[in-house]
Amino acid sequence: MSLVSGATGGLGKAIATALAREGGTVVVLGRSEARAEDAIRDIQAVVPNAALEPLASDLSSQASIRSAVDEFHSRHQKLNVLVNAAGVFRKERQVTPDGLEVTFATNVMGYFLLTNLLVDSLKQGASEDDLWTSRVVNIASKYSGGPSVTKIDFDDLQTTKRKYSYMRATPPTMLGRVLLTQEFAERLRGSNVVVNAVHPGLVKNTGLLQDVGGPFRWLTNTLGKPAEEAADTPVWLATSPDTAAVTGKLWAKRKELPTPGMGSDPASRKRLWEECTRLAKIL
Q1: What are the tens digits of pLDDT across the range 3-15?
Q2: Which domain, by its residues, includes 204?
Q3: Residue 144's domain is classified under what CATH number?
Q4: How many domains are contained in the chain?
Q5: Which of 12, 97, 133, 174 has the fewest Cβ atoms surrounding its Cβ within 10 A?
């Protein structure tokens, strides 16, 4: 049983398609059930016997995430694989009904809350004989602001004090995903749930940059790799026996990468965890 967020297009859909080929049920999570159903039809066109289920959630909304998880729990007790592949790259600053900046709310809080709410299902999905583990795979980036400036401003997580720009708001959220990956891995040690992050690189024809366009979209579609190729490492982490005991790492092309910037600081990942816990009202 797998669940893939951001599965209605681009890299997320390619990951969901590859997991469908591996067998088992794949839950396709999208912003609406209609989009999830459209993605299911596309996947079934190339994997005719795929077992797929739609699930709707706006990952910028905590209420929507909680509702989607409740719906998942009404259908299933166990989850073997969670791939967090959803994300946004916003040109202008927007605020969610929770009062959070959309980029931070989706790219960081969405991963944090969805994973937390599914942890018990992931634990139940792991076998008791220690030969198998449940997997969490977080799509992130090694380019989290560049090697000299990779940091999270904990005094301005949501870009309220500085002038907003997508290049100011988005890179710290990619680092945030790496920090949360490490913190989840540490907190879940001994539970048979492993958590890893992936730098997929530039991916062609992703919907992530549609709001921005211009040179970014040109660069991605010119130099990026096909989504099917970019899906290789996430699917390997999600399914391979070779990665069953690996946790808390950042990967690209099936090779471990150094953690960018603040990623080597346990205090930073703990601080981000505590802030996310406060904002999500998790006790």
Answers
A1: 999 999 999 999 9
A2: 2-280
A3: 3.40.50.720
A4: 1
A5: 97
